[in-house]
Amino acid sequence: MVQFTDWDILKNLLLAARWTILLSLLAFVGGGVFGLLLTLLRSMRNKLITYLIQGYVEIFQGIPLLMQLFLTFFGLSLIGIEVDAWTAAVISLTLFSSAFFHDIWRGCIEALPKGQWEACKTLGLSYLQTMRHVIVPQAMRMSIAPTVGFSVQIVKGTALASVIGFVELTKAGSMINNAVFQPFKVFVFVAILYFIICFPLSVLARHLEKKNHVAR
Amino acid sequence: MSLVSLDQVHKYYGDNHVLKGVDLKVEAGEVVSIIGRSGSGKSTLLRCMNGLEEYQQGGIIVDNQAVENDEFKLRLLSRSVGMVFQSFNLFPHMTVGENVMLATKLVLKKNKAENKKLAEALLEKVGLSDKFDAYPGNLSGGQQQRVAIARSLAMSPKVLLCDEITSALDPELVGEVLKVLEQLKAEGMTLILVTHEMNFARDVGDRVIFMNQGKVWETGPSEEVFSNPQTEELQSFLAAVR
């Protein structure tokens, strides 16, 4: 029987952690871009668009991410589109995080006093000028901390991709455990690695929150 | 043709009939004060004049342009009508100078040097030439409001609408803002103000509009309205605010 040293375990987990980080990054960027698009569309205040986006957000916030992963992975193959675990995970996490990002950013825009819009209107600025020069710069400053904060949720959310067979940190952990039968040790390693990824993000979010608080 | 003319303007918020057929004409160079109890529709009336609020019946014409709910037309109108708000509404992420120059840069496409000169001249006019690079958050309320006035003037409006612009100020700061208004009147600017400053309305204003229950209840030259109010409602209002 092959013997696994602690270093073997850790090494394999570290290799798998790459995929956790990559998946998180893709979900962050994809969700960010898509969430931004939704936010800009919604700020145009078209009733139909607002309802559609509201529905979208409710659906993705109201269904567990696990179910979203299942539905993407198995649902797409049901309608004849074969997707691998990678693609399904990226799609699900992107849609999931776009709904949350949109909600965070919409909140930041709506938190600005209505007077900012009115001042721009009475000065003759167009919608795009108002957004670009007055609304977005202020909303962005407010949104940095909660955005970074949510990225922690994305990292932890990637763990669920293990159930559709995507080999990231969590999946690698259970596979290694199946070989070494030392669940406590293996999963402590897994937990530590997640913490090492997430902790700096939490610190950064808290730091940014404080910094922007002072600036206001 | 009057600079501002309202003809039987009706405005509803849902079932709430806020303006019930308002007629009003303001000539160029006039200073008109709108007074009345809260809820009498005076701010709403002012906000209808530049399209911040829609109205449902009647017509408003300002500087020969019909005020309609059309984004493009309202943007054109905004060059003729300036507005100063109770809560200043300065852009907190920009310096005082940038606040004043934003619209002239984006809307009038003035070049940088010309724009800066204009902003400096306007800030000097309101007594804040040393605050060009300050941020609004570091100014007093009175200073912020004067920046807001300068920002409006940058677009060289024909009429300036002032919506309770001294109501959010500490009493000792009210004077410096009213002084700027007096100066504007001396230069011939048309001012329409919703105000609680009865002394200012009487001493500086040409004409007073007393709004009550969504209507122009009583109107006339300032001196006359204050010394000899005709209706019972105005009498009791004046008694209450004095």
Written description of the protein model:
Chain B: It is a peripheral membrane protein. The complex is a heterodimer of chains A (216) and B (242). Chain A is 83% helix and 0% strand. With 216 residues, chain A is mainly alpha-helical. Chain A has one domain (6-215): MetI-like (MetI-like fold, Orthogonal Bundle), CATH 1.10.3720. In chain A, helix 3 packs across helix 4. The longest helix of chain A has 37 residues, at 6-42. Chain A is elongated and about 75 Å long. Chain A starts with 5 loop residues before the first helix and ends with a helix. The mean pLDDT of chain A is 91. In chain B, strand 7, helix 6 and strand 8 (190-194) form a beta-alpha-beta unit. In chain B, helix 4 (112-125) packs across helix 5 and helix 5 packs parallel to helix 6. Chain B is globular and about 55 Å long. Chain B starts with a strand and ends with a helix. The model of chain B has no long low-confidence stretch (mean pLDDT 94).
List its salient traits.
heterodimer, A: 216 residues, mainly alpha, MetI-like fold, B: 242 residues, alpha/beta, 6-stranded mixed β-sheet, 4-stranded antiparallel β-sheet, globular
Give a short overview.
Chain A is an all-alpha fold and 216 residues long. Chain A has eight helices and no strands.
Helix coverage percent of residues of chain B?
A: 25-40%
Any idea of the CATH class of chain A?
Mainly Alpha
Order of helices and strands of chain B: EEEHEEHEHHHEHEHEEHH
The name of the CATH architecture of chain A is: Orthogonal Bundle
- Given helix and strand content, the structural type of chain B is alpha/beta
Unreliable residue runs of chain B: none
GO molecular function (chain B): ATP binding
Domain ABC transporter (chain B): 4-238
Membrane topology (chain B): Peripheral membrane protein
Keywords (chain B): Amino-acid transport, ATP-binding, Cell membrane, Membrane, Nucleotide-binding, Transport
